[in-house]
């Protein structure tokens, strides 16, 4: 079940069914499996509980490091970076996402690399660097197309490119 109802055209943040997200969070409870931890991180993040999301995301990275695959670890680190972004720690999020994107591309994991670039684009977008955001979103789009991503993923990336273009057009150029 998808809890995402769309994306805010100005912030690019997920628009979710809050009631469904809260119910799912209650269902998961304190489960400690990696999939449950990752889902909890995302749910806490979209419910504007960034501090709780940070704690659980750090736990998910530790669990992935100890018991997961390299792909699991990359996914956990990307999600952790997205929590850093929500908290306004743009430099830390950018650094983590850059490392994850490079590793995923080096391994030929286009879908994971696209996930990292999409999130790094959101970091740049929120930080006001719309040109860098657009570059990352375009890279994510290419990788998603290459990996045969679902239409909703392609659509969210196209929306992000559009938003970055709009913001770039309305941002005064420094002289």
Helical percentage: over 70%
Classification by helices and strands: mainly alpha
> What is the strand content?
under 5%
SSE pattern, N- to C-terminal: EEHHHHHHHH
Provide an overview of this structure:
The chain is mainly α and 175 residues long. The protein has a single domain (4-169), classed as Alpha Horseshoe (Serine Threonine Protein Phosphatase 5, Tetratricopeptide repeat), CATH 1.25.40.10. Helices cover 75% and strands 4% of the residues. The chain contains 8 helices and 2 strands. α1 packs antiparallel against α2 (34-46), α2 packs antiparallel against α3 (50-67) and α4 (70-86) runs parallel beside α6 (110-127). The chain is globular. The N and C termini lie far apart (49 Å). The model has no long low-confidence stretch (mean pLDDT 95).
Question: Topology, please?
Answer:
Layout: E1 4-7, E2 14-16, H1 18-28, H2 34-46, H3 50-67, H4 70-86, H5 90-107, H6 110-127, H7 130-146, H8 151-169
Antiparallel strand pairs: 1-2
Helix pairs in contact: 1-2, 2-3, 2-4, 3-4, 4-5, 4-6, 5-6, 6-7, 7-8
Feature tags:
175 residues, mainly alpha, Serine Threonine Protein Phosphatase 5, Tetratricopeptide repeat, two-stranded antiparallel ribbon, 2 strands, globular
Question: TL;DR?
Answer:
With 175 residues, this protein is mainly α. The chain contains eight helices and two strands, in the order ββαααααααα. It has a single domain, classed as Tetratricopeptide repeat domain (Serine Threonine Protein Phosphatase 5, Tetratricopeptide repeat, Alpha Horseshoe), CATH 1.25.40.
């Amino acid at each position: 079940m998808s809890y995402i109802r769309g994306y805010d055209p100005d912030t690019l943040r997920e628009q979710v069914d809050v009631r469904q997200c809260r119910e799912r969070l209650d269902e998961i409870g304190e489960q400690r499996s990696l999939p449950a931890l990752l889902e909890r991180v995302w749910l806490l993040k979209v419910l504007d509980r960034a501090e709780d999301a940070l704690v659980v995301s750090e736990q998910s990275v530790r669990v992935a490091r100890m018991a997961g695959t390299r792909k699991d670890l990359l996914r956990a680190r990307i999600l952790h970076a997205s929590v850093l972004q929500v908290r306004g720690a743009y430099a830390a999020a950018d650094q983590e996402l850059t490392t994850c994107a490079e590793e995923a591309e080096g391994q030929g994991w286009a879908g994971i690399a696209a996930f990292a670039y999409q999130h790094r684009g959101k970091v740049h977008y929120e930080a006001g660097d719309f040109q860098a955001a657009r570059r990352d979103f375009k890279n994510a789009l290419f990788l998603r197309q290459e990996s045969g991503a679902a239409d909703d993923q392609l659509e969210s990336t196209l929306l992000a490119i559009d938003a970055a273009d709009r913001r770039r057009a309305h941002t005064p150029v420094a002289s």
